[in-house]
């Protein structure tokens, strides 16, 4: 009990230490070993998140954003970051956007267009990054690292995916050499089949997956009903076209449209496997294809205090760990312990693990986030 109490005090002290804490030495974080977190006494060099906004997450091809351009989606959240924090756009040192499915150069152009829509001057650079499902988190890590290194003081990390426009496609021309390397060949496996491989290798049953899906939708529905998403979602006024009549109308999207509050085991059990005849992954227990965007604003704690901005979170560590591509979905199981260890903590110090359930890079919900601040 005493250990748990002390741990809570240390972790809470990380979030809002306005002065040197008696719980923490001037240079070492008491939550970890002596090598972790060498910082100044006032912790002003902590990299913090001061704002986080997103669009709603909508079903691709039939949801609320099916007729919305990707650059418009990103433009809305970039503009929200500026307007809601009153940060001067010209002070932003870089915008890094995690994105997966669109061709790299084309998406980079679209993202730069979005920055101009949002009011950023041409002096603010932008680039995209692709680490598949964790691309949005990679963008956050890149911005945090650049601020820590002193390359700039303020940065925006974003995520964008528009699966209506950019679906999951196979490699157009495959090198015949791939047939001589099993793991190279496994890189071409559809995501659905890698899901089946994980289920088979680790004994995850159909009922396990269906129950996880039911629980996930119920939690999401409860969070939405209680207003937990209200402050983070930016209402987007856009157009939608009736596919039968071609009639266009203006709508405002402010809620995720993929949550199924009435999902239940009986209904899910009747669905056929989606990727393998005798498989266990179905349309009911797999993630939907989605359209959406999100962004976070990062800076040092000292600058956030100077600007009077709230500390929503502290970026403590990051880890990327490779795994067998045939079971790529186990990535978080390898990355989480590495990230926790890099923070000078242990797994049992963590109260909440939040792991992505979807392909793509839109944030949030996006990417692996281990929250221990």
Describe the model:
There is one protein chain. This protein is α+β, with helices and mostly antiparallel strands and 373 residues long. The chain is built from 10 helices and 11 strands. It has helices at 2-15, 70-85, 104-117, 135-149, 182-186, 191-202, 206-225, 265-269, 301-307, 331-342, and strands spanning 47-54, 58-59, 94-98, 126-129, 154-162, 236-241, 248-253, 290-300, 313-314, 352-354, 369-371. The strands form 3 sheets. Strands 1, 2, 3, 4, 5, 8 and 9 form a 7-stranded mixed β-sheet that branches. The chain has a two-stranded antiparallel ribbon with strand order 6-7. The protein has a two-stranded antiparallel ribbon with strand order 10-11. Helix 3 (104-117) links the parallel strand 3 and strand 4. Helix 2 (70-85) packs across helix 3 (104-117). The protein is globular. The chain starts with a helix and ends with a strand. Mean pLDDT is 87; it is low at 17-41 and 359-373.
């Amino acid at each position: 009990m005493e250990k748990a109490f002390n741990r809570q005090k240390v972790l809470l002290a990380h979030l809002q230490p306005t002065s040197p804490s008696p719980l923490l030495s001037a240079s070492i974080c008491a939550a970890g070993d002596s090598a972790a977190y060498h910082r100044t006494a006032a912790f002003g060099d902590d990299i913090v998140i001061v704002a986080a906004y997103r669009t709603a997450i909508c079903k691709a091809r039939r949801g609320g954003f099916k007729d919305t351009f990707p650059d418009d989606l990103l433009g809305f959240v970039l503009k929200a970051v500026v307007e809601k924090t009153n940060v001067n756009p010209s002070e932003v040192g870089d915008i890094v956007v995690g994105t997966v499915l669109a061709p790299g150069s084309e998406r980079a152009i679209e993202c730069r267009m979005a920055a101009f829509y949002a009011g950023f001057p041409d002096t603010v650079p932008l680039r995209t990054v692709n680490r598949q499902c964790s691309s949005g988190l990679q963008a956050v890590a890149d911005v945090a690292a650049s601020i820590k290194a002193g390359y700039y003081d303020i940065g925006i990390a974003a995520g964008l995916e528009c699966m209506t426009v950019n679906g999951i496609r196979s490699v157009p021309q495959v090198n015949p050499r791939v047939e001589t390397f099993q793991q190279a060949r496994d890189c071409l496996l559809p995501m659905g089949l890698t899901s089946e491989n994980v289920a088979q290798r680790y004994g995850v049953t159909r009922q396990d997956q269906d129950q996880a899906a039911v629980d996930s939708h119920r939690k999401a529905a409860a969070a939405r009903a209680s207003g937990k998403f209200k402050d983070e979602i930016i209402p987007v006024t856009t157009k939608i076209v009736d596919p039968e009549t071609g009639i266009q109308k203006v709508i405002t999207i402010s809620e995720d449209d993929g949550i199924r509050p009435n999902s239940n085991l009986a209904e899910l059990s009747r669905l056929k496997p989606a990727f393998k005849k005798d498989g266990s992954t179905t349309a009911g227990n797999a993630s939907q294809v989605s359209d959406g965007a999100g962004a976070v604003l990062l800076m040092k704690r000292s600058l956030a205090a100077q600007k009077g901005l709230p500390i929503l979170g502290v970026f403590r560590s990051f880890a990327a760990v490779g795994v067998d591509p045939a079971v790529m979905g186990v990535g978080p199981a390898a990355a989480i312990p590495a990230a926790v260890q890099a923070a000078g903590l242990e797994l049992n110090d963590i109260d909440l693990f939040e792991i992505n359930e979807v392909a793509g890079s839109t944030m949030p919900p996006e990417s692996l986030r281990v929250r221990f601040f």
